[in-house]
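2024-03-11 09:14:02 DEBUG pipeline.ingest accepted 1 chain
2024-03-11 09:14:02 DEBUG pipeline.ingest length=321
2024-03-11 09:14:03 DEBUG pipeline.predict start
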Amino acid sequence: MILRHTFSPPTSSSANRRLNHLCGALDEHLRILETACQVKIAHRHEQFKIDGLKRDATRALEVLQAMYELADKPIEPETIQLMLATDASLKATSGKACEGSAFGGLTTRRADLRARSDNQATYLANIASCDITFGIGPAGTGKTYLAVAAAVDALTRNSVQRIVLTRPAVEAGEKLGYLPGDLAQKVDPYLRPLYDALYDLMGADKVAKAFERGQLEIAPLAFMRGRTLNHAFVILDEAQNTTPEQMKMFLTRLGFASKCVVTGDVSQIDLAEGQISGLIDAERVLRRLDGVAITHFTTSDVVRHPLVARIVDAYALARKG
């Protein structure tokens, strides 16, 4: 059924400024909303008309109203994409707000940080209650970002003395050859996503000071052998690119008063053909072990550009075909 919704914000000098922020330059924000919700939006001054299927038009209206509440200042396109992704994930989890989605208590620089789906809320609860937590799912579901946020919170509250972040240095289908520079410069490209998360959650100055104090460490997985990590929050990212031997080595580094989170996407394995992924093997071996929690994410948990979820689904469907 085709439905037409109308939306008429109040008119005033301040309201005109909000309308400009709402629509964006050359109605950029409305075009984003049209594409994501598959509707047509027309407006004349403060009068908006939304045409589309009932479900799509209703969703567009809800997001448009939420955007208007934020329009006292300019709205970034990324904010709209995030609103749309969050809205989609909530619809996929029975159409109501997730229990625990506003999980208070994580102390980071991001005041707006919250779980945006049931699976994300479960993931954070597992991290809080279990010593070892696996987060397995497609790109853009917040696996690494939320793990780093939980680690920053634990460090801020002095629950741990340091954060250790590690990834296997495996090339994603590319042959990079011998990289120039010292050891830190050689491995830096592999670890850059972890730096990005830290800068966003702590700020560059605090990250630099934490490195100086030894509270932060980022290293390739190979550097973990032979170590015991006490009083630490340890995160292994891109774990699908470990071998079973590497995974066992990493998990047995866990020391006293420590917590470990392992994240990965089993649909993006970059190991040589025929090699078994340590993440897949660990899930099989450890899934019934007390103290170990496994959270599976789906495309409904993706909080990047709405196209990301559709791309993941398209590739999954192609592989099945």
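2024-03-11 09:14:41 DEBUG pipeline.report The CA atoms of residues 188 and 219 lie 9 Å apart.
2024-03-11 09:14:41 DEBUG pipeline.predict end
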